[in-house]
Design brief:
By secondary structure, the protein is α/β, with parallel strands linked by helices. The chain has 13 helices and ten strands. α10 links the parallel β5 and β6. The chain is globular.
Length: 373
C-alpha cells in the first residue's frame, strides 16, 4: 500500500451501523503519549507500553519524509509504536532506480531510527506488481522467463541480504490475488507462472533464515473467494516445505460496509501452523465525518484489535500511518478520509483512545508465541 496507489481497487471490508460506540475513559484523557526517554512503567499509557502487556507489537507505517521534517510526527512514531513498516522506501522502484544501482539510504535511516527506539521492522515489500522501477517495466515484456526470473531472484536476495538480521517480518509476496480468488495477471504470473511465489519465499529464506516471511494481501479479512484462495495457497506452500511463516491481513476498512469475520479468519490461518498479523489497518469514512461515522470508526479499530489479541499467533497490529494529514485515503477514494487515529494536526482522536482502552483491558490476553517480540 502507498499514498500514491490503490485507485481502482475494490473497497475493503468495513463497519456497519451496528458498530460499537466506545466512551472515552477519563483515565486516558490528555495522556496520548509519554516523551521519548521518559517511559515510566507505572504511568505509561502509550500504545506500545499497553500492548507490551500481552506481548503484542503495535506498529505504524512510516512516511520517511515526515519522519525527517516533522518533529511531532517523529516523536509520536518513537513513543507510541513498537514496530515500524516503511511506507515506500523498501519498494523496488526506490531501492534500485537504475538496474544494478542501489539506493538503500532512506530505508537504512528508518532501520537506524527503529534500532534507536527499540522497535522491530516489518520489511515491505519484496515482490509486488506495482511500484516497480521504470527500467524493469520497460524491459520485462521482451524478456525471456529465465531472464526475468534471474532479475527477480537477484532483487529478492540482494535486498534481504542488505537488511539481514535487521528485519523482523518481511512481506515477501504482496497482493498476488484478485478478489474473485484468481491469481493476479502480473508480469510475474505471465512470464514465470505461479511458481514465482514459492521461489520468492525460498530466496528470501536463503538470504536471511531468521526473518519471518509473510504473504500479505487486502480483502482477505472476510471469508470468501479471495481469502479461501490465499488459504489454499499457503496451505499448499506449507505442505511443500516452502519457508513461509505467516500471513498479513492488510485490514483497510470503510464505514459503509459491514465488519469482516476477522477473528475466525486469523484463527483458521493460525491453525495451519502460521503466524498472522494485521499489517495496514485504517478505517476510512465519508467526509465530513458525522458522530455516527466516527463511532463506527471507533468500533472498527476496537474490533480489529480485539480480533488480533484473541489469536495467540497474531504477532503484530500495524496502522497504515497514524495522522490524517499523511493518509493515502483522500488521494485514492474521492470524498473519503479521516481514516487514521490522529487528526490532521497530529492530535489523538477517539480512535486512538479506543486502541488505548482495548489494550489496557487486554492485559490478560494470551501471550504472543514469537520469542523475538
Amino acid at each position: 500500500m502507498t499514498s500514491r496507489l490503490r485507485a481502482g481497487l475494490v473497497a475493503t471490508a468495513v463497519i456497519g451501523a451496528g458498530a460499537v460506540i466506545l466512551t472515552q475513559s477519563a483515565a486516558f484523557a490528555g495522556t496520548p503519549s509519554t516523551p521519548a526517554g521518559h517511559h515510566n512503567p507505572g504511568q505509561d499509557t502509550s500504545l506500545r507500553a499497553l500492548a507490551a502487556q500481552s506481548g503484542l507489537r503495535i506498529g505504524t507505517a512510516v512516511n520517511t519524509d515526515a519522519l525527517a521534517s516533522d518533529d511531532a510526527y517523529r516523536s509520536i512514531t518513537a513513543t507510541q509504536f513498537s514496530s515500524v513498516t516503511p511506507e515506500n522506501v523498501m519498494k523496488w522502484e526506490v531501492v534500485e532506480p537504475a538496474q544494478g544501482t542501489y539506493d538503500w539510504s532512506a530505508a537504512d535511516r528508518l532501520v537506524a531510527f527503529a534500532e534507536q527506539n527499540d522497535q522491530l521492522v516489518r520489511g515491505h515489500t519484496l515482490v509486488w506488481h506495482s511500484q516497480l522501477p521504470a527500467w524493469l517495466t520497460a524491459a520485462a515484456p521482451s524478456m525471456s522467463a529465465d531472464q526475468l526470473r534471474a532479475i527477480l531472484k537477484k532483487h529478492v536476495i540482494d535486498e534481504v541480504t542488505h537488511f539481514r538480521g535487521k528485519i523482523w517480518q518481511w512481506d515477501v509476496v504482496n497482493e498476488a490475488f484478485n478478489d474473485d480468488g484468481t491469481l493476479r495477471d502480473s508480469i510475474w504470473l505471465q512470464k514465470l507462472g505461479p511458481s514465482y511465489i514459492e521461489d520468492a519465499f525460498r530466496w528470501a529464506h536463503q538470504a536471511d533464515p531468521k526473518a519471518l516471511l509473510f504473504y500479505n494481501d487486502y480483502n482477505i479479512e472476510f471469508t470468501g473467494p479471495k481469502s479461501n484462495a490465499v488459504y489454499a495457497l499457503v496451505r499448499d506452500l506449507k505442505a511443500k516445505g516452502v519457508p513461509i511463516d505467516g500471513v498479513g491481513f492488510q485490514t483497510h476498512l470503510d464505514t459503509q460496509y459491514p465488519l469482516p469475520d476477522l477473528q475466525s479468519n486469523l484463527q483458521r490461518f493460525s491453525d495451519l501452523g502460521l503466524k498472522v498479523a494485521e499489517t495496514e489497518v485504517d478505517v476510512r469514512t465519508t467526509l465530513p465525518v458525522t458522530p455516527v461515522e466516527q463511532n463506527a470508526q471507533v468500533g472498527g479499530y476496537t474490533s480489529t484489535l480485539q480480533a488480533c489479541l484473541a489469536v495467540r499467533s497474531c504477532l503484530s497490529y500495524t496502522v497504515w500511518g497514524f495522522g490524517d494529514a499523511y493518509s493515502w485515503v483522500p488521494g485514492v477514494f474521492a470524498g473519503e478520509g479521516a481514516a487514521t487515529i490522529y487528526d490532521e494536526n497530529l492530535q489523538p482522536k477517539p480512535e486512538y483512545t479506543a486502541l488505548q482502552q482495548t489494550l489496557a483491558l487486554a492485559a490478560g490476553a494470551p501471550g504472543r508465541n514469537d520469542p523475538r517480540r
